[in-house]
Amino acid sequence: MTIIGVPTEIKTHEYRVALTPSGVRELTDHGHEVIVQAGAGEGSAITDDAYIEQGARIVPDAEAVFEQANLIVKVKEPQPVEVQRLRPHHTLFTYLHLAADVELTRGLMDTGATCIAYETVEDTRGRLPLLAPMSEVAGKIATQSGAFMLQRPLGGRGVLLGGVPGVAAGKVMVIGGGVVGQNAAEIAIGLGAETYVYDRSIDRLRELEVLLNGRASTCFASTLEIEQRLPDVDLVVGAVLVHGAKAPHVITRDQLKLMKPGSVLVDVSIDQGGCFETSRPTTHAEPTYVVDGVVHYCVANMPGAVPTTSTYALTNATMPYLVRLADQGLGALAGDPGFLAGLNVWDGKVTYAPVAEVVGVEATAPDAALAAA
Q1: 147 φ, ψ to 5°?
Q2: For 298-340, how does the pLDDT look when each residue is reduced to its tens digit (9 = 90+)?
Q3: 63, 88 in Cβ contact below 8 A?
Q4: Could you point out which of 35, 134, 286, 362 has its C-alpha 20 to 30 Å from the C-alpha of 203?
Q5: pLDDT tens digits along 242-270
Q6: 213-224 b/e (C-beta count within 10 Å ≥ 16 → b)
Q7: How far apart are CA 309 and CA 13, in angstroms?
Q8: Could you tell me which CATH class the domain 3-120+307-372 is placed in?
Q9: Which of 158, 167, 153 is nearest to 235 (CA)?
């Protein structure tokens, strides 16, 4: 039997929770015990009683969760006080985004715990099934938030993206044509904006032509093409992803001067270090700042703003993996190379090469770590 612990998320304005009552039911039906910190689901409109009805046990605080559980499941990366609670016998399953946080990586290495990252788990086609649902949410929120921040009282240009009869619609540039970019473009199109989607994969641009039904212009993401478009657009959504690695900068500080005063940048890649040179993480409490007259929206947990949607979308994706991990322990990774790709830290060693490169340590092959475990 595995004891699964669900602590309350403590990142600023994070309202999601890592497990729904349906998830508790799945795990208890498999003979495992689930302990949930009191009030952990309140931000997602899930009561303690709803967990209890499906077999969970409620404990008063996070300290009790970490003391009693051996498999900790979360949403966001552990905060410093949570890192201090981790022990070598713990397996942590959550979003980590370690390539953008050397300090956190070293902290997790010091704990000796096994850390599996949602965002680097792959399926048989090399896609990221545990990142996808939050990417869908983040892409939609990115355009919604950008449209909101374009309002003059919030520092924006005072542009309505959809325009009105006799007044042209606003222009939206989406850089990155993956899951985030596609969803950001869909919302921009729905608002009536003139929309441009940039990517470096011609095959993906062909797919987007079909998926978006020709309602957006698809463009190759060369530096010059992006630079030439910047003076015209009102909103730029950065949706660049390099699997498990730090995001490249696609707009530099020098290029900001090409943009209109009051235009808006939304950086969905901020969890991976940000894809704009001037990006730095913000929170829902203070979501924006201004650099050279351009409004930057760089909230590091955008889906946390809509937890009632995000929590269920996340659990739907993570649950099959979590059940296997509870049933088989690290053996669940042995027969699944994609799941094994989620292993980032084990026994003080980094097992994910892009993270090891950023931290400046030698990567341990994940299969070697698994064999030793």
Answers
A1: -60, -40
A2: 999 999 999 999 999 999 999 999 999 999 999 999 989 999 9
A3: no
A4: 134
A5: 776 788 999 999 999 999 999 999 999 99
A6: eeebebbebeee
A7: 15
A8: alpha beta
A9: 158
Residue 220 token pair: 């190759």
**CB of 297 closer than 8 Å to CB of 145:** yes
Q: Where are the domains of the chain?
A: 3-120+307-372, 133-300
Amino acid at site 26? E
CB distance 326 to 317 below 8 Å: no
Q: What is the pTM of this model?
A: 0.89
Q: What is the mean pLDDT of the chain?
A: 95
CATH topology of domain 133-300: Rossmann fold (3.40.50)
Report helix, strand or coil for 291.
strand
Listed residue (65, 66, 55, 58) closest to 33, CA to CA: 55
Long-range contacts of 282-286 (CB under 8 A, 24+ apart): 283/12, 283/13, 284/12, 284/13, 285/12, 285/13
Separation CA 80–CA 223 (nearest Å)? 38
Question: How far is it, in rounded angstroms, from Cα 149 to Cα 147?
Answer: 6
Distance, CA of 149 to CA of 289 (rounded, Å): 11
8 A C-beta contact, residue 133 and residue 145: no
**What's the full length of the chain, in residues?**
373
Catalytic machinery residues: 97, 271
